[in-house]
Amino acid sequence: MRITVEGVNEGQPIPGPFAFAVPDPKEHMSLSDNRNPKVVWDGVPEGTRGFALLVVDPDAPTDASDVNQDGKTVPADLPRADFYHWVLVDIPADVRQIDEGEDADGVVPRGKEIGQTAKGIRGANDYTDFLAGDPDMKGVYGGYDGPCPPWNDERLHHYTFTVYALDVTSLGLSGESRGPQVVEAMQGHILDQASVTGTYTLNPNV
Known about the structure:
It contains two helices and eleven strands. The protein is mainly beta. It has a single domain, classed as PEBP-like (Phosphatidylethanolamine-binding Protein, Alpha-Beta Complex), CATH 3.90.280.10. Strands 8-9-6-5-10-11 form a six-stranded antiparallel β-sheet. It has a three-stranded antiparallel β-sheet with strand order 1-4-7, with no helix packed on it. Strands 2-3 form a two-stranded antiparallel ribbon. The protein is globular and about 55 Å long. The mean pLDDT is 97. This is PBP family phospholipid-binding protein. InterPro entries: PEBP, PEBP-like_sf, YbhB_YbcL/LppC-like. Pfam families: PBP.
């Protein structure tokens, strides 16, 4: 399989319009266009009955106590964990692309709906947890929401877009499906997969 994420090149910075936030010299960061990039895939193996799409950042801090705090930094050697930015499952077998802005176009306070769309079933991304303590932003964040690493993080973050070709039409997930649930449900059903990884930081010193 092959995947193309327009504007996202392997190992290169992700453009600001695809991010949740961009650097701001006065406020450290400001909200961005938060548009999903166009994703196209081909070279699909025989027997494919559906697809899943995940975007994951493996560089999320495991301790958020110093995140976005003036006078502090998040050290590069702090243990990290996966943060899922896009969870889309049960994509029909005849779909080969998701257009720019089709799943996300702007930051939506309190999130976007999960559930059925024309291109599959939206699960919940990890902003659902990250923003749970913010009374103005908390909610269930469905579909795509772009990069917003801590502006004081010493580590460059990586964002891997992966399309999976599956031998089932449905993973049987319902409700607020999350990235790890999708990974578990796909085991034994993956015929092929393709990925591309871009980078992003809000720290001007990284």
